[in-house]
Amino acid sequence: MMRRPNERNKIEHHTEQYNSDQLIVRRGQEFKIKIDFNRPFNPAEDKFAVEFIIGSSPDYNKGTYIPVFPTAERQSAWKGRITDQMGTEVTMGITPLANCIVGKYSLYVAVSTPFGIRRTKRDRSRELYILFNPWASGDAVFLNDEREREECVMTEVGIIYHGSFDDVAERDWNYGQFNYGVLDACLYIMDRSEMPITNRGDPVKVTRKASAMLNARDDDGVLVGNWSGDYTYGVAPTSWTGSTEILLTYASSKMPVCFAQCWVYAAVFNTCEILRCLGIPSRVVTNFYSAHDNDGNLKTDIILHDNGSIDRNRTKDSIWNYHCWNECYMTRPDLPAGFGGWQVVDATPQETSDGMYRCGPASVQAIKHGQICYPFDAAFVFAEINSDVVFYSRSKDGTLQPVKVNRRHVGRMVLTKALGNMTRRDITDQYKFSEGSAEERTVLEKAEEYGCSRDKSDFPVGDVDVILPSLEISMGESFNLTTEFINRSDKKRTVNVYVSGSVVYYTGVISSEFLFETPTVKIGPNKSQHQTTMCLFLFTVGLKVNTNTRVKTKVSGGDRVSEEMMVSVQFTNPFTFSLENVYIRMEGPGLMSPKVKYYR
Length: 600
Prior knowledge:
This protein is mainly beta. 14% of the residues lie in helices and 36% in strands.
């Protein structure tokens, strides 16, 4: 009979928070099991081994069958030793290799007898999980910073930043990596991907495969993306509050879950394949004004009609108000020294990489230093952070002529959650040098060597400026849009103006146009002129409420361990119209599984 001193193993391996009856340990570190024989063990005569098996075709040479012996005279890849013996009970310490396969193992004891090898029968209660180990110096994901490890492996609740550069908003997210069933759901995803068992100890291969499996574009992965605004046959991306419901639904239904946008992909990816569950340190990162380079020339091309309006049919590149991805921490033995550490991985399906919708892992250091030739997808991420925005005028004969270049718009700010508290941390300097610095020029020159097609045109400085106001408008209210034109020349100017007002998704895609005007404005020398337009917004809105302002929670009843508490949640409708078909979703890490309440 085999038993495991679970509590001690859990504490020493930092797995005590997992809601599981199984043994969960980390590779590269000793754990202990107890074996009860039918008589006292005699080291001089008795021979036995503890066998670990993973996958359907165990093979010693492939690391999927590992016998562990109790004596120093005979050892295999994993070290074994007897740490204690009392009567018929033997305590054995076992140390998996720091690069062993990560996943669920079956465990047996094989005893040598005069009649041959006898081994225990399969018992699912003796199955154990072996995870990556950021505490072990020999592991490829070793992170030698306790505060970073606590935040990027053990913390259950995070903040995801969104909105715009000058109006940053927050979403709380329950990663739920320790919740019951989540670990099995993560391993099911790897099985579903048909990733070879032998690759599952390599964090580079695991994260690359996982970035493909988190989206459903080409492999029936976890989440279906939807940016249309119509979420009739699923859950709106803004309604999710955590990863648990998504992962358990996918594992039970065996079908992709509807719906996701970039922050949902990043948050679920953070839970299941890297952060906190399998043990690779990871964090969610938000890049404000993120370029989507559709044609691979590492610049953002905006094509204009001859009247100044954007040619939507020919403009394939776009700039997202923000884009969320993940960073994971690991060595990169496939790259030159210095390019390990934080790596970008992105599950949002934007462009294909080696034939599948995925991105990364791409070294953040390589991106910062313009070394975009290295795998995987460093050039694409470099463009998201560093693209020049080039505007082209398209004449009637189809000729394109650059008319303006903005070299400072893209990659304005990169944020992630701060260590140990619920505030933000600006990590822009980890991706790029200061704008206009000598280091930045060197990086861009290096990037040009690897195919970054920059436009170095110089354009004359215009003498008419346009100033748009900053407005804060409530839903359903009309407002005046006053545009100021300033003539800085000594001559009278006549300006043909193109004014377009559109409802735009955060990805830069236009939903509808509500305003179109082409006034002509005449401005005297060194004068200014104002142009005023009356507008009205009336939208049907999907609401994600900031809990600091709209939702109030109150706890009543007991406030001690093991005593029931009652929590009341109060939401006040801030609008002048009634809200209908309202869903309230709640969950709490380690406390409450996801709950949904519907109000007509």
